[in-house]
């Protein structure tokens, strides 16, 4: 099944090369303090009411953040100094895994509260900026031929209730499958009340559509540079409509 392909995608995403050290400041959580990995930070804020936390490049900034948000915590004396809560060396993350939107959020003063992003029984893979990770994929056998068969996969986590694995609706092509996979992921996220979604895809076609081609196609009346109609117009418009009510970032896992 298509859904089985996501295990390797997730493994690749989590084992990217090493680069920058980050400190995770938890001002309001189970055990407020500074943590050196997102996994440790997540344990303190996941399913905690109105968590306040943020990622920093220096320990000093993390300390200052906690002191500035001392009034938000109900679990500790925030006047005391905070130690980095780990016996391991600080987590090192790849710069390649951080897109431009991530960099903008790193520099912002916004306090992250992702408590509303957890309304199903399944747990989520939430990044350090409060975005729920979802992995999408589409595949097609005999692509471009009359007997082609295509399917989509949406993966929120192992055995997650929001996962989707089904056949493509309509034309069976690889690109249609990739587009419909994203649309399905967004629809599932909405049902769960998720507001911030990080879409991981290996489709360069899809990334190019979002970042480059669609604005041009719209301006040109949905015709290509060769003056031919855009083949996937219907599917792309359905995806665009679904995306409007969410905060979305994209990760190209190609």
From TrEMBL:
It comes from the Eukaryota. Residues 70-100 are annotated as: Disordered. Residues 82-100 have a biased composition (Basic and acidic residues). Keywords: Endonuclease, Hydrolase, Magnesium, Metal-binding, Nuclease. Its cofactor is Mg(2+). InterPro entries: Ribosomal_bL9/RNase_H1_N, RNase_H, RNase_H1_euk, RNase_H1_N, RNase_H1_N_sf, RNaseH-like_sf, RNaseH_domain, RNaseH_sf. Its EC number is 3.1.26.4. GO terms for biological process: DNA replication, removal of RNA primer. It holds the Pfam family Cauli_VI. It catalyses: Endonucleolytic cleavage to 5'-phosphomonoester. PROSITE patterns: RNASE_H_1. Residues 70-80 have a biased composition (Polar residues). One of its GO terms (molecular function) is nucleic acid binding. The keyword Hydrolase applies. Residues 128-254 form the RNase H type-1 domain. Endonuclease that specifically degrades the RNA of RNA-DNA hybrids. Belongs to the RNase H family. This is Ribonuclease H1.
């Amino acid at each position: 099944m298509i859904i089985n392909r996501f295990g390797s995608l997730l493994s690749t995403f989590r084992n990217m090369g090493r680069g920058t050290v980050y400190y995770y400041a938890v001002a309001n959580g189970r055990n407020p303090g500074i943590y050196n990995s997102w996994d440790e930070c997540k344990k303190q804020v996941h399913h905690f009411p109105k968590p306040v936390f943020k990622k920093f490049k220096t320990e000093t900034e993390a300390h200052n953040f906690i002191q500035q948000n001392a009034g938000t915590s109900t679990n500790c004396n925030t006047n005391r100094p905070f130690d980095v809560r780990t016996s391991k060396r600080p987590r090192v993350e790849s710069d390649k895994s951080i897109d431009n939107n991530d960099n903008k959020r790193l520099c912002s003063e916004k306090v992250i509260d992702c408590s509303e992003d957890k309304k199903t029984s399944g747990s989520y893979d939430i990044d350090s900026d409060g975005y729920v990770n979802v992995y999408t994929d589409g595949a097609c056998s005999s692509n471009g031929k009359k007997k082609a068969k295509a399917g989509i996969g949406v993966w929120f986590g192992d055995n997650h209730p929001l996962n989707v694995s089904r056949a493509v609706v309509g034309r069976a092509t690889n690109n249609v499958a990739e587009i419909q996979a994203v649309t399905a992921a967004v629809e599932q996220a909405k049902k769960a009340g998720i507001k911030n979604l990080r879409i991981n895809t290996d489709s360069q076609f899809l990334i190019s559509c979002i970042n480059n081609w669609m604005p041009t196609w719209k301006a040109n009346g949905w015709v290509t540079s060769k003056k031919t109609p855009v083949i996937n117009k219907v599917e792309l418009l359905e995806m665009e409509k679904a995306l409007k009510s969410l905060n979305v970032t994209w990760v190209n896992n190609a």
